[in-house]
Design a protein that fits this description.
Layout (H helix, E strand, L loop, with lengths): L8 H8 L2 E4 L12 H13 L6 H17 L6 E5 L3 E2 L5 E2 L3 E5 L11 E7 L5 H19 L10 E6 L3 E8 L2 E4 L4 E2 L3 H12 L3
Parallel strand pairs: 1-9, 6-7
Antiparallel strand pairs: 2-5, 3-4, 5-6, 7-8, 8-9, 8-10
Helix pairs in contact: 1-4
Amino acid sequence: MAFSDFKTIAQVQEEYQIKYSEEDFIEYLDLKPSDIFIKEFDFSDKNMDIFTSEASRCENVIYPLCREVYKTFVDKYTLWSHKSITYDAKLTGTPDYLFSSKSELGKTVMGLPIVVVVEAKQNDFNEGWGQCLAELVASQGLNQIEPDQKSSAVYGIVTDGEVWQFGKLISNLFTKNRTRITISDLDKIFGAIGFLLSQR
């Protein structure tokens, strides 16, 4: 069973006995996009239909934004694009993007998955969150291989490029951030992702 086979949050909840809550847990780090990033993003937005397809959203919006935030945390984390992870037979698949801790073995080996990013296919956030929560359960399982990581949070982002939503899983409690952020507020998106990456 792949992550994408989970179509709703409720499906994952029932399978893994996950409790659900909503609250604004995000605190915004003072992290802003560089002038170069803003210039390049504005160029693409002005001259190209960057939201025309899923591939375009990923290539022109989601990945460049994650990569730009990643530059601030490059000493602690590694950013992966379409890197498969497996916890067990049911929890396996390929997150669109994920941030992991750095491995002592180098950039070819993934450390512990900390933040997973899911593109909301066809703007379907319900299905996106079903997939994301399954990925978070797998990430939590992989983290628990390390004894000191048992109570640490893992974080999820679901986005269609225009709207960004955030969640976290600690033990068996999933919390979805109430506030959604739109692409018009780049500073807040940067600050939110930066906050997630600053928690460890």
